[in-house]
């Protein structure tokens, strides 16, 4: 049976990100966690809910943007500079 809780490493594995990213999400209150002793404990369903929200939000953002023609690889688009940094 799968545990209902995960630690930072377990959350990072579920989200496919570095454990430091999980700690940053916890610190910014984007991801719910409790500190038990010296370790954070997260509910697996909260971690998966966060991932689901991100998938929905980022997909909606992409759908809301007009389609662009492909540019040469040597010319980054102006919008590429304004995109949020990837969580990793």
Largest beta-sheet characterization: 3 strands, antiparallel
Average of per-residue pLDDT values: 82
Strand order of the largest sheet: 1-3-2
| SSE ordering | EHHEEHH
Rg over CA atoms, rounded to whole Å, is 17 Å
Looking at the structure, what is the overall shape? Answer: elongated
Question: Percentage of helical residues?
Answer: 40-55%
The total count of strands amounts to: 3
If you consult CATH, what is the topology of the domain at 5-64? Multidrug-efflux Transporter Regulator, Chain: A, Domain 2
Supply the CATH class of the domain at 5-64: Mainly Alpha
Uncertain segments: 72-88
Oligomer: single chain
Description:
The protein is 49% helix and 11% strand. With 88 residues, it is mainly α. The protein has a domain at 5-64: Orthogonal Bundle (Multidrug-efflux Transporter Regulator, Chain: A, Domain 2), CATH 1.10.1660. The protein has a 3-stranded antiparallel β-sheet with strand order 1-3-2. Helix 1 (8-15) packs across helix 2 (19-27). The radius of gyration is 17 Å and the shape is elongated. The two termini are 29 Å apart. 11% of the residues are buried.
What is the topology?
Elements: E1 5-6, H1 8-15, H2 19-27, E2 34-36, E3 39-43, H3 44-64, H4 78-82
Antiparallel strand pairs: 1-3, 2-3
Helix pairs in contact: 1-2
């Amino acid at each position: 049976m799968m545990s209902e809780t995960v630690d930072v490493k377990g959350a990072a594995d579920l989200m496919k990100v570095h454990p430091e990213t999980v700690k940053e999400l916890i610190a910014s209150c984007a991801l719910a966690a409790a500190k038990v002793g010296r370790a954070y404990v997260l509910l697996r369903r909260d971690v998966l809910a966060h991932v689901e929200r991100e998938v929905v939000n980022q997909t909606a953002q992409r759908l809301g943007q007009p389609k662009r023609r492909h540019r040469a690889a040597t010319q980054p688009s102006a919008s590429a500079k304004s995109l949020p940094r990837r969580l990793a």
